[in-house]
Design a protein that fits this description.
The protein contains 7 helices and 9 strands, in the order αααβαβαββαβββαββ. It is of the alpha/beta class.
Length: 206
């Protein structure tokens, strides 16, 4: 039987249109997105891992002139992205197995890392680094305490996993990132725990 974390993909695949309907478009995330974009060239490339339906995060990146490649494990979500933004690159895939063909100027993992089991999350920092060119910038959200929780959405169980804050800091440091800004439980961003970091120069290990 699939684990609760593995069932997240099935849930997003079966209920993609319902998730899209429930997703707020107020763009309360904009202060963080604009802080991220301040480090991305005006015509730069951005990888959106766990892009969902492309709204509102990818839409904002696109409207600000960036070229977006979105990856999501849900075919339904990617179908919505392709319909909305046909001039950009949308791929069905597991972000844990991503093999980047070329580095990006920026990477966003907004409310997507949180659906991975804690055991799967440490390896993502090396992957983030491999997906970014030296000086590239990373924006992601996380939990704030190590553990797993099972939430409820429209009568379905929804898994969330987290490392500790110290684990996230250590993961960024080991993968060659400088932390630019971090807020745990940001009250101006729906209580999200948000990290903004820049990849240092040099070869990425791992």
């Amino acid at each position: 039987m699939p684990s609760p974390a593995e069932r997240v993909v099935d849930l997003y695949s079966r209920r993609s249109r319902a998730f899209d309907a429930d997703r707020t478009r107020t763009l309360f995330e904009r202060p963080w997105l604009d802080a991220f974009l301040a480090h991305v060239p005006e015509t730069g490339t951005v990888l959106d891992l766990g892009c969902g339906s492309g709204e509102p995060i990818a839409r904002h990146l696109i409207e600000q002139g960036r070229r977006v490649t979105g990856v999501d494990a849900s075919p339904g979500m990617i179908d919505l992205c392709r319909r909305r933004f046909p001039d950009h690159d949308w791929r069905i895939g597991d972000m844990r197995a991503l093999d980047p063909e070329e580095p990006f100027d920026g990477l966003v993992a907004w409310h997507s890392l949180i659906h991975l089991a804690p055991a799967d999350q440490p390896a993502m920092f090396g992957l983030f680094a491999r997906c970014l060119r030296p000086g590239g910038v990373l924006l992601f959200t996380s939990g704030s305490e190590r553990g797993e929780t099972i939430g409820d959405w429209r009568g379905e169980t929804l898994y969330h996993g987290s490392l500790s804050l110290d684990d996230y800091r250590a993961g960024l440091e080991t993968a060659g990132f400088d932390l630019l800004r971090h807020v745990s439980g940001d009250p101006g961003c729906g209580g999200a725990t948000v990290w903004l970091a820049r990849r240092r120069g040099g070869k990425v290990a791992g």
